[in-house]
Amino acid sequence: MVMHAPGLAPILSPGQFVNVAVPGDPSHITRIPLSFAGTDPKAQTIEIVYAVVGEGTARLSRMGEGDASTVLGPCGKGWRLDDVSGPALLVAGGVGAPPVLAAARGLLARGIPFDVVLGAQTAGKLWGVGLAKSLGAGRVVVTTDDGTAGIKGFTTVAVEQMQGERDYADVLTCGPQPMMAGVARLALADGSSCQVSMERMMTCGFGACNTCNVAMAAGGYKACCTDGPVFDAREVAW
Ligand SMILES: Cc1cc2nc3c(=O)[nH]c(=O)nc-3n(C[C@H](O)[C@H](O)[C@H](O)COP(=O)(O)OP(=O)(O)OC[C@H]3O[C@@H](n4cnc5c(N)ncnc54)[C@H](O)[C@@H]3O)c2cc1C
Ligand code: FES
């Protein structure tokens, strides 16, 4: 979905998210947190890519051209691209692809080389392969759980293979938590820095409700919505 969001599009950083109100059912008062895949500051638009998983995203999918709502943002802290020296390996699972490809745009702008792994349950759920190539990825490797496209298996299979062929200074990843835990383990064992974009249920999206806690390795919790969603993998209690 492309949203016209004057004022917001130019100030969003890769890895931040927006909190979208979906009109249609007044009993649903919470917004839907969504990453963005890209922005067009000139046209003042934001591109989001989402999976329909429940009532809110189903209503979102019924919105059409000309429908209006409100969107809150920029939310959270995004990728720390200034800390990335490259070569970088970007690893996305499922709907983790939008923020990972937003990071790719940022690396492209900084002239930092990167490869991409895109994983999905099945070929029909893959998104972003063409976009990753058009953003200048050195290699784009696809994995599917059922083998309908690319390597059969999880993204970690591809990550291990690619680590054997190139030294990655940095790994950036977003996807299901078990996948990110596996990618983080491989990245840190290989001596790479590793940034992870965590997903949590969110209610407010701005640090007021304690819904979105992420357990920290050092003890205690941080708020995914304001301290994250991007964390250093070493910070997180996996
Ligand atoms: C920072 C952030 C960025 C996100 N970016 C994207 C994106 O780019 N594209 C995309 O498709 N989705 C993204 N999500 C997930 C998206 O927000 C949820 O899928 C959505 O809120 C579900 O709302 P719903 O009303 O349709 O489903 P619900 O009826 O609320 O839930 C349906 C199912 O999804 C699970 N679920 C709901 N919200 C979340 C969540 N936040 N994390 C994990 N599971 C959840 C529920 O447990 C339930 O099983 C993001 C979430 C966060 C926190
Ligand atoms: S969603 Fe309310 S504190 Fe994070």
Automatic annotation (TrEMBL):
Signal peptide: none annotated. Binds 1 [2Fe-2S] cluster per subunit. Binds 1 FAD per subunit. This is Dihydroorotate dehydrogenase electron transfer subunit. Gene3D superfamilies: Dihydroorotate dehydrogenase, electron transfer subunit (2.10.240.10), Nucleotide-binding domain of ferredoxin-NADP reductase (FNR) module (3.40.50.80), Translation factors (2.40.30.10). The keyword RNA-binding does not apply. GO terms for molecular function: 2 iron, 2 sulfur cluster binding; flavin adenine dinucleotide binding; metal ion binding. [2Fe-2S] cluster binds at residues 204, 209, 212, 225. SUPFAM superfamilies: Ferredoxin reductase-like, C-terminal NADP-linked domain, Riboflavin synthase domain-like. One of its GO terms (biological process) is pyrimidine nucleotide biosynthetic process. Belongs to the PyrK family. Residues 199-236 form the Dihydroorotate dehydrogenase electron transfer subunit iron-sulphur cluster binding domain. It comes from the Bacteria. Keywords: 2Fe-2S, Electron transport, FAD, Flavoprotein, Iron, Iron-sulfur, Metal-binding, Transport. FAD binds at residues 56-57. Its cofactor is [2Fe-2S] cluster; FAD.
